[in-house]
Amino acid sequence: MGIEITGITKRFGDFVALDDINLSVPSGQLTALLGPSGGGKSTLLRVVAGLESADTGRIEIEGIDTTDLPAQKRNVGFVFQHYAAFKHLSVRRNVAFGLEIRKQPKDQITAKVEELLELVHLTQWGDRLPSQLSGGQRQRMALARALAIEPSVLLLDEPFGALDAKVRKELRDWLRRLHDEVHVTTVFVTHDQEEALEVADTIVVINEGRIEQVGTPDDLYDDPASEFVLSFLGPVTRLGGRLIRPHDIEISRYEQAATADGPITRWTRIGFEVRLEVTPTDPLHPEPVQVVITRTEANALGLHLGDHVWLRPQVGAQTVRA
Ligand SMILES: Nc1ncnc2c1ncn2[C@@H]1O[C@H](COP(=O)(O)OP(=O)(O)OP(=O)(O)O)[C@@H](O)[C@H]1O
């Protein structure tokens, strides 16, 4: 069950925004659509929501073919980056709105709204206007409003994208906890790999209208299917013709079996990290290699700018042929 996406293609003029997308989103999970800007994530979410119609393909939500159903009949909750609240209505009335137009009994609506406000920790702000809330509180209200109709799926398009880094971090922890409580099938769009790795049960990497890989955060991190996935999930560097993560490189001051060796040509300290650049002496692979170690390691190894060092992948490190 969950969401079944079969053979979805979407063109805007000659441009192919989605190219034969096939994807099963498991019921009750938190799934991230991750990829660079313009890759097609929002378009896919909008097609699932019914806000955009695909040229070909089929969408099933919880076993029901919704391909030709209008958005309001699909029973989806949707939250955008910039949430359009009713400015003249209180937070409570905004949350109640979807229930009022469904003509539910008043006492049921009141009880449901209080339950939702508690869930998103906004009980004490219920009588305020949306303009009197912070950005993070507004997005929580948007989630409460989307959840009010008890959707079969919750679709979130960069819900925290417009917020500053600290609030984003808080809200992503909060979303994870909220999801653990309500278990509604949730799909959220993000271009932030850390957000996806931290929050999602399953990550779908999308690039240029195609799915690059689907897996758990660990699957993707430990076993990237392509150079694109490896490099999208964090910084990478080239070591002897292969791509590797800079902190997966072993560095030694002493001559040893190594993939590359050369002098340390840059040294940058950022907090607890030391980022080094080593320029290999090998004329076949002369481009500088980035290496990241902790300050403690750098001190223990007695490393300095200009030292000649030997580099090789750490045991178990993931590498991909470049
Ligand atoms: N209504 C439209 N008309 C024409 N082109 C569109 C339309 N909507 C999206 N596109 C194009 O389709 C491509 C995919 O857009 P989409 O918004 O799905 O990407 P995205 O991965 O969500 O990126 P972002 O994170 O920047 O929103 C982009 O190149 C975009 O310019």
Automatic annotation (TrEMBL):
* Keywords for this protein: ATP-binding, Hydrolase, Nucleotide-binding, Sulfate transport, Translocase, Transport
User: What protein am I looking at?
Assistant: ABC-type quaternary amine transporter
Give the EC class as a word: translocase
What positions does the domain ABC transporter occupy? Answer: 3-233
- What molecular functions are annotated in GO for this chain? ABC-type quaternary ammonium compound transporting activity; ABC-type sulfate transporter activity; ATP binding; ATP hydrolysis activity
Q: Which PANTHER family match?
A: SPERMIDINE/PUTRESCINE IMPORT ATP-BINDING PROTEIN POTA (PTHR42781), SPERMIDINE_PUTRESCINE IMPORT ATP-BINDING PROTEIN POTA (PTHR42781:SF4)
One cellular-component annotation, GO: ATP-binding cassette (ABC) transporter complex
Taxonomic superkingdom: Bacteria
Q: NCBIfam families from the entry?
A: 3a0106s01
Q: Which organism is it from?
A: Aeromicrobium marinum DSM 15272
Q: What is the lineage of its organism?
A: Bacteria, Bacillati, Actinomycetota, Actinomycetes, Propionibacteriales
EC number(s) recorded for this UniProt protein: 7.6.2.9
